[in-house]
Amino acid sequence: MKISRAIVAGVVGGALVLAVVGLAGRLGGSHADLCALTGVILTGRADAVGWLAGCAAQLAVAVTAALVYAALFEHVTRRGGALVGVAIAVPHATVAGLAVGLLPVARLNDAGITPPGMFLEHRGVWMVAAFVLAHLLFGTMVGLLYGSASSGARSPSAALLTHRREE
């Protein structure tokens, strides 16, 4: 597994998610800064320290997700690339969207910030679309930056098809 490539892909993909969701929030006039939201949840602070903690946490999650993608590229699909990455991103976006709705909200409420809800639903329909799009872009970017699987092994289905052709 190409761990350093996966880490770089996770940081770039994570930054892309933060940028897309943040830009959509600014355009839509809603509070959608994922670093700020995460920072308040983690630290209870709505200042620069909270934002930095939230950003570090978001990027750590992105790197972890990219390492999971890399493992899937290497051991399940046996290939990488943008198309495989976006295919993996569909369940990733679903799990991430549901998980956002399960985040603890007490500190957000204390700070006067409306909890985001699942898929950022409390920020409006455009934010839901931006959230899903951002995660699909994450998968595409991780697949693109990770590249092909290093194992070189064929998937079990490809091996079976090759075996049948040889008979």
Strand-helix topology:
Elements: H1 3-28, H2 34-43, H3 48-77, H4 82-101, H5 106-110, H6 125-146, H7 156-166
Helix pairs in contact: 1-3, 1-6, 2-3, 3-4, 3-6, 4-6
Describe the structure.
By secondary structure, the chain is an all-alpha fold. Helices cover 74% and strands 0% of the residues. The protein has 7 helices and no strands. It has helices at 3-28, 34-43, 48-77, 82-101, 106-110, 125-146, 156-166. The longest helix has 30 residues, at 48-77. The chain starts with a helix and ends with a helix. The model has no long low-confidence stretch (mean pLDDT 91).
Provide keyphrases for this structure.
167 residues, mainly alpha, 7 helices, elongated
